[in-house]
């Protein structure tokens, strides 16, 4: 597993334990080259899913992308990380169980909204308000960018904007964890 910080290929597993009701294995890893620490998850994948975008473009389903939008919606919300992971896994299982190899970005968005509704009402509102405007759009990066910048009414401070950029950057580096 490549180090997300320095790119070294030589990272070591320090600790492995079951997570998410034993449906996943969580591994703490450390990079001997830069000392960076990061976490990876190993999960069962029941089916290969393809996302059908509105543009007609198809791409392999990517759990990390889904997780990123959830994390951005949950920014600064005190929600237990295990519950969040379980919600994301629940969305993925529901997609796998549709019986179709193709899922639409709309199906994914609706399931994430339902999951967030159970998890945290603020995150739900954030996600839903941005998502509804993006139904016609197909650009996920733009969606997450918009979500990161979402300000409920007058709560917009410069600090919030910085945090939003930070969490978007953090989410991007998460891409390297696979
Ligand atoms: Zn490193």
TrEMBL record:
Zinc finger motifs (unnamed), residue ranges: 3-34
Protein name listed in UniProt: Transcriptional repressor NrdR
Keyword Translocase found: no
UniProt similarity note: Belongs to the NrdR family.
Function: Negatively regulates transcription of bacterial ribonucleotide reductase nrd genes and operons by binding to NrdR-boxes.
Keywords recorded for this protein, A-Z: ATP-binding, DNA-binding, Metal-binding, Nucleotide-binding, Repressor, Transcription, Transcription regulation, Zinc, Zinc-finger
Pfam families, per database record: ATP-cone, Zn_ribbon_NrdR
Region (Disordered): 155-178
Free-text cofactor note: Binds 1 zinc ion.
Cofactor(s) required for function per UniProt: Zn(2+)
Sequence ranges assigned to domain ATP-cone in this UniProt record: 49-139
UniProt organism field: Pseudochelatococcus lubricantis
Protein origin, superkingdom: Bacteria
């Amino acid at each position: 597993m490549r180090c997300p910080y320095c790119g070294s290929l030589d990272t070591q597993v320090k600790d492995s334990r079951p997570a998410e009701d034993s449906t996943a294995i969580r591994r703490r890893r450390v990079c001997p080259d830069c000392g960076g620490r990061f976490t990876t998850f190993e999960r069962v994948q029941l089916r290969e899913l393809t996302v059908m975008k509105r543009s007609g473009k198809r791409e392999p389903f990517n759990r990390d992308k889904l997780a990123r939008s959830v994390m951005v919606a949950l920014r600064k919300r005190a929600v237990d990380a295990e519950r969040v992971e379980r919600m994301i896994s629940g969305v993925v299982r529901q997609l796998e169980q549709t019986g179709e190899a193709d899922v639409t970005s709309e199906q994914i968005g609706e399931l994430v909204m339902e999951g967030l509704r159970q998890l945290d009402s603020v995150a739900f509102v954030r996600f839903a308000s941005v998502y509804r405007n993006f139904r016609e759009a197909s650009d996920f990066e733009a969606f997450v960018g918009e979500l990161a910048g979402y300000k409920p009414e007058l709560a917009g401070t410069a600090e919030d904007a910085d945090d939003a950029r930070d969490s978007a950057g953090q989410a991007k580096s998460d891409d390297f964890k696979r």
